[in-house]
Each structure stands twice: as structure tokens, then as C-alpha cells.
Specification:
By secondary structure, chain A is an alpha+beta fold. Chain A is built from 13 helices and 34 strands. Chain B contains 10 helices and no strands. The chains are: A alpha+beta (667), B mainly alpha (302). The interface between A and B is large, with 70 and 97 residues. Bound molecules: zinc ion.
Amino acid sequence: MKLKLGCWHFILLGSVAVNSADYSFPPPTASYNITAKLDAVDKRIDGEEEIIWINRSNRTTDEIYLHLYLNAFKNLSTTFMSEVSNRFSSLPDYFYSVCKNGWGYCDVRSIAVEAPGLFERMDVMESLQFDPIDDGNVADETVCRIRLPGAAAPGQVVHLYISFTSQLPHRAPRTGYYQDYLVAGQWFPKCGVLEEQGWNCHQYHNVSEFFADYGDYDVSITLPKNYIVGASGVLVGETSAGAGEKTVRFQEKCIHDFVWTASPKFRVAERTFEYVDLPPVKLALLYQPINQKYVDSYFDAAIATLKHLGSWYTPYPYSHLTIVDLPEKSNAGGMEYPTLFTTDVSWQVASGSQAPMGVTVHECTHQFFYGIIGNNEAEHAWMDEGLTVYATSRCLNTAYGPGNAWKMYLARDSFGLPTTFKHVHKDQRDWIVENQRERGALDFMDKPSWAYVNYPAYRNNAYEKPALMLWTLENVLGEPVFNRIMREYVTRFRFKHPKPQDFINVVNEFSPQDMNSLFDQTLHTPGVLDYAVVRVISQRDKGTKGYFGRGAELALAEKNDPGTWTSQVHLERQGDIVFPVELLITFEDGEKRRLQWDGKESIKIFSFTQKARVEKAEIDPDHNIWLDVDVTNNGRYREKNHLAAFRWGVQWLFWLQHLLETAAIFS
Amino acid sequence: MVFYLSNVIFAAAVALPLFLTLNGQIAYLTMRSEIAQHPSYAWWSGFRFHDGCLAETMRPSLNSGFGPMLDNVELLFRGNFNSFGLTILFAGLAYIFLMAFLNGGALSQFIEDRGFSMQRFLGHSGHYLRHMSAFLTLQGLVLWGIYRGISPLLFSMIDSVTVASVSAPLVWFVNLAGYILVIKLVFIVVTLFDYARIILIAEKKTSSLTALGLSVKFVFSRLQPMGLNALLAGIAILMSTIAGTIFSIIHPSGLFMVILSFLLQQVYLFLLISMRVACYSTEVLLYQQQMAENQQVKKRKH
Ligand SMILES: [Zn+2]
């Protein structure tokens, strides 16, 4: 069945007919045949590409938009580079390495188009114009458009023939080179996505990621013989290109980007993933010799992800997956690309921490929420990052159990002082709750990545708040229901470009209650969720006195029951987000009572008159609401106890004495 | 004892408000029993967030040895001691100056070797305060230079050397060697300044710089001063390790155990402080012995 991309009615109607067992790929929209030659000394790529683009929208267009991502690193005035200095409190390392003669660019040398049945092959280089579509920055050349000699109606096929030169930047994020390691990401001119509203082709911003149509890729790269290469897709051929060079050719169907990495220093390890009825996947790991000891950890983490996400949501649809372990200093960090992801590990891993599994599972999870589900990463980052954080944590918990206390010896922090070990248990989710507390009120989730005022606001709304919201949903709806939601969402939107409302619709379809209110409060308004028990008090029942009865029985009386108490529990909503909560009251005689509160008022008092006093009151006793930024104020006793304060007060006195005494050595 | 008492008083001046804040925060919480058992991350991060700087200083970390000390120094450098923290900073500075003041008295006591008199102790303390403060400032500057200049330089060199390395343990050991080198440097500086103080008092010099010059000559012309300090440092490390082991075995969750561990901690600190004072007296002794030997050698030569 043919689907019109970008037409949401079509997709929703069409999805009903999609069989969840049907793993075949949809027909391509933008396919790329590229031949490239690497200048290994200058880290420069000369390429020729043919793009076969099919208008799958129901809109006629006489122009085509192209991304030239590497132009983000062309000079200091590009949108990417100028955003770096505005968004970070201290300039990231890569800013300096790019500025220090590590510039990158993507220069289009020639461009021709051809549309069978519409117009012959024709040079359109003259019509090329840069279009800073988001911010009007004329120095930014990351988006350009070309004019077609004729208007391409829906269904029309257009071929683009482009010659380009791409210079890789030095130690840049997500792409570039470091020593003789290189990651060619976003290195070729790439089509935007034609939607109902027109072309969706954003500039390359500092924090925003990518968006592209699915298609088939066939890429041949010529480079020195001693380079070991990893790329999106499957290696289908390797031939000698003379003079110490070779040509490697990779092919893959139904992906939306193509990356390759190369270095003479990589070592290669291989495994095969096999698990009950999931299709087998060949795994390749390109790693640095120093990280030999992490080879098993990398594979284990990738295998755990393919196994769990494959069984929970949908099988990994490609036959191959490449894991690339890059030098920490390359700044490439953990990054997802189709059928390939990069990850890294520090020479100094905190024992008990989940490195390098944490980042490996995260990037591998992106194979599902980015790779298989191709939402617009620039406009709705929470849909790929948030879902990935959620699923990563679920996968890590299932595969490795909860995180451990971190121990670090001789690690250096930014101040050059050796940090000692942190002797506390810290769940992987704890740090997210902690960040949420500090920046949860910054902005809201449904916003383009580049529109956030600063990096913490982006981070919060792309990664942290959505993950907390999803965990809360999972707990409140129950794991089986939420798992069905996720499975349905993935099945319905495989190889499509879902929007936030698509996800919300699936949730509401399966959830017994309507979840729109929660989505509204997280997607469209800033704020945090925090409920607290602020007071628990009891008073002996004062009884009553005065006249009682009528007629002959009218008399002064005093009634009281000395054994009865009136207890009050005061609750507060301390955050902006309203969410129904459960209250657990424990009485002195051991009785426990569960009550519901819709959480709407800012102050709420519950009263109980009975023989036993309230001993303690707890909000959300099962700890379902992960969005709650402070769980310590969730429960309160009626009576106080000083032991904990005493213990830590004394401990702190000792620490301080020790500090003073150590300083005195230098006096 | 004077040293110990001033330590307790200074620390308590800051620890008490913290205890009160803590008490106000957690006395009613249902989480309190969990908190009493072990540091709860969720609680601690929330506490830190609500109560800011003061709580910021209380990191749940290893509860013995130099771990918490380093943690807190780190926070100090990061400027996380804000409003309340300024009190701590000033208390710390005042404490160090008080120690400088007392050092003068203690050293003269040891040099004169005439039995203890509070009057003379304080008198000498006052007399040498000017010089001791000068030493303290200068030493502070030198150590700051090591921290901000030499140490980062060394580690960036280590980074550039190890970046191409293929062996993780090797990288770890090179880093360890780097730390040892820095510690060694600090150690030398401390030794130099210790003897400068002794020389100033023993030789009745009036210029701190002359004393420092003589100290350099004294320390570098023979092995004993460094050897002695290394020995003393070794004993201190051994003591901390033993104390650390004891403290990590004791799990202060009940009231009795909290009191017990408190007493043990105080004994340990008292010993540590006594150790420092004893260190001055042995240094003085060593200096006097060496000088006496020198004189004999000179006499024989005549
Ligand atoms: Zn991610």
C-alpha cells in the first residue's frame, strides 16, 4: 500500500490495515547513489551523487530544498557557531577546535536535474540560492534551494545530479575528524522533506538534530587501503583502486541518512545477534586498541537492546548493525545514525557505574526511536530523545538491574582536583529527577530545539521531562497497558514521520482515562509537579455542649468521648502540574487507609475523627509519579524524631573538623 | 588541648546551624529512618536544592580519611559556599590564622625547652604572629601557584602523552604518578616552610625571607628533614587508614552507635592534632641536633 508521507489522515487510515507482522519496507522517497573519494591528509571528500526523489506529498512543487549541513562549520558567523556562544555558559571544547583551523564545509560544484516525462536533464546551478529559513542569517549556508524547470506534481520522480566537495571539521560534534579517526556524518547534500505545509528543511542549529525521508542508499567510497571502514548499511564489495587505495561499497534499504567512519587504527570484532524468533543481526564493533577490555560490554549492551526492544516493540529490521568506539577526545560522543552508532568510554570508568553500557544502550535504542520511527528531530526532539531515555532505562534495568553507587578514584573534575568517591546509591533515574527539580520549569516540551533559550532548557524538554512523563504514564497505567501503547505506536509509525498528536492519540486509545491533561501540562506549559504533606496534627476530641433535645427532653448537656481524636493531614500542591494522587494514611493502631485526591487545589485538608490518631501520611506511596520533583516531602509523621539529623549533624561536625585540621597542616 | 578545643569550637560554630536546619527538615519525614541508615540520594539532592549552600557542603561521601575533606575543599574552590558558606570560609581563614598564631607559641616553647607556661606561650605567639602570618601568606601563594599553574600544566602534559596510549592501566599509573609528583611538591613546600619558622625563632632572625633562605639551605643540604617529615606523614596516613577502617565498620544507625562513633571520631581528631604538634617538636629537635653536629664539625676543622 502506498502511503503519502506528510498526509496524516492518510497515515491514520492506512495504519489500520498495517499488519504488525509485516516487516517489509515501504517504497523509498529519497534514494541516494553516491561515489566519494577521501583525501586522507586533508580530510576532504570529493563526491558525486544522484538523488532519486519522489514527490509523495499531495502538493505540487517547482523547487527542491537541500541541506548542506557541513556549512555549519564554515565560519564563525554561521547559525550553528553563533548559537554556541549564546547557549552555553562556558564554550564547549569543539568550538575552539573548529575555530583553530578545523573549519568544515560542503561546497556544491554542480547540480543538474531531470524528471522523466517532465523535463530533460538540465543544469540548475544558476538557480541555487541559500535560504536561512529559520533565522534569516544570511551568513548561514546550511540550507539551499534550487528551482526546477517544471513543476513536479504528486507522484513525479525527480533525479538530482550533484558534484560536491566536503571538508570535515576538526573534533566537531556528530561529525569530523580527530587525528586519523574520522566520522563522516551529514557529509553530502541531502533533500529536505516535502510536507503538506511545504518544504521542511531547517538550518543546522547547534542543538537540533535531523529529519529526512526514507530511501535506499548505495554508496562507494575510495580511500587508503589501510583504513578500516564502518558505515550505514552492508558492505557489498571491496575493490582495489590502485596507488594504495581501495573502494568500498555499502548498500541499505529504507534508511534516512548515511554515515561512514574510517581509521587505520580501528580494531574489528564481530558477533551475531540471535534470539528466539527475532531476525538475526550481524554486529560489528570498530574499537580503539586501548578499549579492548570493553569489547564484551559493548556487544552485551547492543545485544540486550536488540533483544528487549525487539521483543517489546518491533524487531530490528536491518541485517547489520555497526558499533563504533571513538576516542573520547574526538568530541563525536555517542551519536545515532542508521544501522550505525558511535559511543565512547573514558579511560577512567567509575567502578559500579554503567559505563559504557549506558551510552551504548541509549544510542542503540535510537535505532528504534530515530531509525525506525523517523520523527522530526529538529521540531520534536522529545519524541526521539525522550522515548529513547525512557526505553534505555527500561532496557538497562531489565538487563543490568538498577544502577549502583559510583566509585571513582583519581578522576579529575573540571577544577583539576582529584574527586573522591561518592558513596551513595544513585538510581539512573535519580539524576534526571534532580535535574528536573532545577530546570523543570524552564520552557515546555513541544518546541523546536533551537528555540530554547539555553542548553539546560533544551536538555530538560528533549530528554528529562519527557522521560519522567513516560515513566509516570507507565506506572499509572500499568506496565502491560503502557507496553501495548508503545508497541502499537512503533508498529503504526514504522518508517513514518509521526507528530506529537500521533503519540498522544495512541496513548488515549489504550488508556482507561483520558491523558490529555497531562500532555497539555508538559507539552505546552512550563512547570514541575510536586505534592507534599506539610502537616500532620491530632487533637483530643473536644466534644460538644449546650442544649440538646426538644420539648420535655430539652436540657443542657455536655457530651464528650475522651478516647476520640481528631487528626488533620494538610496537603499542598507545590508545583504547577495538576495530577491526581493517592494518599496513604497510617493510624496508630495499624489501620491503613488509601484515599484519592484530584490534586487540583493548592491546599487540601483531610480530617479523621476516631479512636486512633494518624501516625503518618504519605502521598503517592507506591512512588508511581516520577514527575514529582521532591519525593522527600511526600510523607510525614505526626511526631518528630531527631536521630537522623543528629547522625548527620555529628558526621558533618567531624568532616568540618577534619577539613580545618588538614588546612592547619599548611599554617 | 588548646589546638583541639579551638578546632572543636570552630567546627561546631558551623556544624550547629547545619544540625538545626537538618533537624527542621527531616525530623518529621517518613524518610527519616532511611536517612538515618544511609545517605539517601533523593533526599540529599532535594535538601541541597532547597537549602542551598550550607547543605551543599554536606556531601554524602566516604565518611573517613581525606575523602570528605577533599570533597569540601573542592566545593570551596567552586564557590559553592555562598552566604552561609562565607561564614565557613571566614571561619576557616580565622582558624588558619589562629593556628599560625599558636604555632609561634608552640615552636618557641619547644625551642626554649623550659616547661610549659601559658603566659610565655601566648606571649611568644603574639611576638611571632607577624612572621607567622607572612609565612602563611607566602606558603598559601606558593601552593596556589602549584594548584593553578604547575598541576594543570603537568596534567595537560600527561594527557598529551597518554592520548595515543593503548593500555588503560598504563594511563592510570601515569596519572597516579602525576598526583604523586604534585603531592611530593606540596610536601617539599610544607617542609621548607616548617623549618623556616623554626629557624626564624631559633636563630632569632628578624627577616622571614632570610629564614626561608636558610631553610632551603638546611633542608636541601641533608636528607634528615625530608626523611623525618615523610615518616611523620606515613604515620598520619597509617592513622587515617586505621581510623577509616574502623569508621567504615561502625554503622551508626542507632543512637548508641552514633554516640560511639562520635567519640571515636573525636579521639581520632585529638590524636591527629597531637600528631601535628608533636611533629613541630620533633622538627625542632632535629634542627637543634643537626646544628649541634655542624658546630662540632666546624670545631674539629679549626
Ligand atoms: Zn540521544
